[in-house]
Design brief:
Number of strands: 5
Shape: globular
Distance between the termini: 31 Å
Strand order of the largest sheet: 1-2-3-5-4
CATH class: Alpha Beta
CATH topology: HIT family, subunit A
Length: 114
């Protein structure tokens, strides 16, 4: 998707503070962090949201969560508490329509979130 900002980041066409990159997934710091650690983990494959995942994406989803764990460990938040979330559609707060997981930590997370 040439108009997708996250596809452009994954392709190296836009700058981002990348903390992890492999053949299937890219993780980078959110430009508007909501916690001391706020990293976005995205698949290189363009999927509009979690609702676009299909059976063939099972391995990709597992890999995304392995990267989320690695990023959490690398950022020093794995043992203190991590919030992992994704939004689907504008009403839930999705503003970039490319599947992404927010990895947040480094402070006490409140509930309900909003």
């Amino acid at each position: 998707m040439e108009d997708c900002i996250f596809c452009r980041i994954a392709a190296g066409e836009m700058d981002a503070d990348i903390v992890h990159s492999d053949e299937r997934v890219v993780a980078f710091r959110d430009i508007n962090p909501q916690a001391p650690v706020h990293v976005l983990v995205i698949p290189r494959k363009h999927l509009r949201s979690a609702f676009d995942l299909e059976g063939e994406d099972g391995d990709l989803l597992l890999h995304l969560f392995k990267v989320i764990r690695k990023v959490s460990e690398d950022e020093g938040i794995a043992g203190t508490g991590v919030r992992i979330l994704t939004n689907v559609e504008r009403g839930a707060g999705q503003s970039v329509f490319h599947l992404h997981f927010h990895v947040l930590g480094g402070r006490q997370m409140l509930w309900p979130p909003g």
